[in-house]
Amino acid sequence: MTVDSELRDYHRRLLPFAYNIVGDSQEAEDVVQEVLNHFFMADHSHVHDPVSYLTRSVINRSINARKRIQAQKQNYRGHWLPVPVATDEAVYADIDKARIVSYSLLLLLECLNPRERAVFILKESFDFAHDEIAALLDITPENARQLYKRAKLKLEPDKVNVVASRADQTTLLRELTEAMIAADVNRIKQLLADDVLSVSDGGNGHRA
Fold this sequence. Notes:
single chain, about 210 residues, mainly alpha, globular
């Protein structure tokens, strides 16, 4: 396998982890590229399981990126809107789209702190066991269980409402992206539904 083929394969595997935790497509791309660049530019002959090593690196770097985003949100005037991955673009052709969480769930995940979000994503989207999550995040299995429990409580149906089913996500993402490009705030609100979240932009650098 050539280096280019390896890079594409790792990118395909790693991007869903980064995007689901970070909630921003460009930030997720940056995380994956930084991890891969560091890995291939350094001597990694001692790494016996590159996939596990890279997955752990991406997850932890994604948590740090998520912390930075949450810090920016505190000082940002407006509503912060997750930036979707345009999964219909050629660059994402090999991505396992089933691993990319729905946009509606991304909105709900905004109420979780970075660690809760990471644990919830790893458990729900990737079916990791708590001991696997603990090893990835360098915490105890019991701590992983508690973080998952807290996340589930924050996401209870009586506290939040889902915007659309997964079957509707392709259409929703396309229309939402078009509305963001057109700066159509009313359309964005309509797509996301007023009873879920009223938003007008996607944070610094992502104005609708």
